[in-house]
Amino acid sequence: MSEPPQTDVSRPSALPTATLHQRNTASQALIDQNSDEYLDAIEEEWNKKLDAEVDFLVDGMVDIVSLASIGDKDKFRIAQESFQAESRAESMVRATNSLLSITHTLKLLLLLSDEAQIAHRRDVELAHVRQEKNEAQQKVAALLDELFRRPSAGMSTDI
What we know:
Blueprint: H1 25-32, H2 35-67, H3 75-111, H4 115-149
Organism: Paxillus rubicundulus Ve08.2h10
Protein name: Mediator of RNA polymerase II transcription subunit 22
Main location: nucleus
């Protein structure tokens, strides 16, 4: 059986002659992974970052909505809630900028990723579509042959 395809993903590792720090088992396990496992771990890490930022934004919106309650409030309470809303909004802006940065990074990763995989997927899809087209052409040809071979029962051939 052939080995799974390897990618050109860079893996951080110490130089062979480096003696400053000894490798711990976690970094050694990361280096010993095959490409698919490594890419899955990277994907999981990105998903965790995205989930954390989105959760932070949702919690911020919930807090801001809860601060916006209507009722009898004195000036101190209004000022306190205003400060809380502003500080929560600033935190949400930071989270939004982080999401924007993550989006930009993911776009770059997609653009600079392994083009061979994208080309392979395109070629597989193209072959599949061509096969479907050929099958449809054969089916249409068979139906047309069947249609033109049978003389219609209602038409007479006497002239």
